Amino acid sequence: MGLRSRLFALVYESQMAKTERAGLRRRREVLLAGVAGDVLEIGAGTGLNLPIYGPEVASLTLTEPEPPMFKRLRKRALDVAPTATVLRAPAEDLPFDDGTFDVVVSTLVLCGVSDQPRALREIHRVLRPGGELRFVEHVRSGDAKVARKQDRMNGINRFVVGCDCNRSTLASIVDAGFEVSHVEHGTLPEAPAFCRPLVVGTATAIAGHRYPDSSSHPQSTSA
């Protein structure tokens, strides 16, 4: 895993270059337009979103669990956003108090977390009531034929790029206590056909949401 993680960090931006040029960069820009207040970006990778954040952002915190990615993220942050806080942490165990942030950003992250429901509960926990989750995620297709192909290819996809291509992420966001206020269904350009189904949207954290199994709700931790 160590070698694979280093190789993935090394080639990530070159592998994504065509996808970025073909439309993903524009989707990032639209997603982050108007983001303001205290912002957390989970799984920030190599920091491709960093140049997009505007002056309305009062504070920017970035988390990334993988050491090779974290090293590249920290270097880019020093160059592009020197006031940002960069921490190594998984989305499933965020080292922040309840209600710390106004906005959480997730771009192509929820497909790869080890425990998606727990990660979404953590995002909900660290958001202030009424705070926003802004997301771009490739997801399970609504077309049954494509979805079956995603199921067949998922093991290979996880081995090669470390993520699941067949997660029903939008439903998981709702289950975690969010109200989806805007969503756009599209495709991830220049990606294999089974990875193309995409959702882009904004969801609002519902205050006082109770989880079906409260014993699994992660405890808050101080930063």
Describe this structure in words.
The chain has helices at 2-32, 67-80, 116-126, 144-161, 169-175, and strands at residues 37-41, 57-63, 85-87, 101-107, 127-138, 178-187, 197-205. It is globular. The protein is built from 5 helices and 7 strands; from the N terminus they run αββαββαβααββ. 36% of the residues lie in helices and 24% in strands. It has one domain (2-204): Vaccinia Virus protein VP39 (Rossmann fold). Mean pLDDT is 91; it is low at 214-223. The two termini are 28 Å apart. It has a 7-stranded mixed β-sheet with strand order 3-2-1-4-5-7-6.
Helix-strand category: alpha/beta
Main sheet summary: 7 strands, mixed
**Average pLDDT figure:** 91
Contiguous helical run count: 5
Helical percent range?
A: 25-40%
Task: Give unreliable regions as ranges.
Answer: 214-223
Number of domains: 1
- Amino- and carboxy-terminal Cα gap: 28 Å
CATH topology: Rossmann fold
In which order are the strands of the major sheet placed?
Answer: 3-2-1-4-5-7-6
Describe the SSE topology.
Layout (H helix, E strand, L loop, with lengths): L1 H31 L4 E5 L15 E7 L3 H14 L4 E3 L13 E7 L8 H11 E12 L5 H18 L7 H7 L2 E10 L9 E9 L18
Parallel strand pairs: 1-2, 1-4, 2-3, 4-5
Antiparallel strand pairs: 5-7, 6-7
